[in-house]
Design goal:
Strand content of chain B: over 45%
Distance between the termini of chain A: 41 Å
Oligomer: heterodimer
Number of strands of chain B: 11
Largest interface: A-B, 26 and 30 residues
Shape of chain B: globular
Number of helices of chain B: 0
Structural class of chain B: mainly beta
Largest sheet of chain A: 6 strands, mixed
Order of helices and strands of chain A: EEEEEEEEEEE
Radius of gyration of chain B: 13 Å
Number of strands of chain A: 11
Strand content of chain A: over 45%
Shape of chain A: globular
Structural class of chain A: mainly beta
Order of helices and strands of chain B: EEEEEEEEEEE
Distance between the termini of chain B: 33 Å
């Protein structure tokens, strides 16, 4: 059974810092990995999708990497801003689509102004 | 707005009542998923539709839960005889193939 772990569970940093969020998964036979952002009481916003054949994806100040063989992904946020405060969720797709995503518990990020 | 739409956004119900939630996916997406999220946890997969066919159900989906997607368009999730443990955020997602797009969720509170 696939399990996803996110470290740290919570993080508070001053505005402007670069930061790294970590995600690990137990079964390396994944189809893809997706990073999401969730604001309190809201749904999930897709940030980046990495296919199993890819090593990284970039969008603006966000960069996600994938090392499938070691079961790890990182989300790098450059020049953090207070608006980046949210919970960041990592999810893996282990099959061809039928089994849904397996999520970690998320990293709760606070950017101090 | 052409994103995933869920209705209602909030629902408070008494224990033992039945509730139904609706999800309207992005129109060209043939894949539709339901998830449940409790406080402090990541979403957990409940069920998957490809077009109108329900192809996968999690063991979390007890016999009090039923989901439909008539004509492969919108979907409904019904919970019968609600229990306090059903209180959660119910999230719907649609996908054209790989990337999942989520709605804003329905927050269910069972009192």
């Amino acid at each position: 059974k696939q399990e996803v772990t996110q470290i740290p569970a919570a993080l508070s940093v001053p505005e402007g810092e670069n930061l790294v969020l970590n995600c690990s998964f137990t079964d390396s036979a994944i189809y893809n990995l997706q990073w999401f952002r969730q604001d309190p009481g809201k749904g999930l916003t897709s940030l980046l999708l990495i296919q199993s054949s890819q090593r990284e994806q970039t969008s603006g100040r966000l960069n996600a990497s994938l090392d499938k063989s070691s079961g790890r992904s990182t989300l790098y946020i450059a020049a953090s801003q207070p608006g980046d405060s949210a919970t960041y969720l990592c999810a893996v797709h282990s099959g061809g689509g039928a089994d849904g995503l397996t999520f970690g518990k998320g990293t709760h990020l606070i950017i101090q102004p | 707005d052409t994103g995933v739409s869920q209705d209602p956004r909030h629902k408070i119900t008494k224990r033992g009542q039945n509730v139904t939630f609706r999800c309207d996916p992005i129109s060209e997406h043939n894949r539709l998923y339901w998830y449940r999220q409790t406080l402090g946890q990541g979403p957990e997969f409940l069920t998957y539709f490809q077009n109108e066919a329900q192809l996968e159900k999690s063991r979390l989906l007890s016999d009090r839960f039923s989901a439909e997607r008539p004509k492969g368009s919108f979907s409904t999730l019904e919970i019968q005889r609600t229990e306090q443990g059903d209180s959660a955020m119910y999230l719907c997602a649609s996908s054209p193939r790989t990337e999942a797009f989520f709605g804003q969720g329905t927050r269910l509170t069972v009192v």
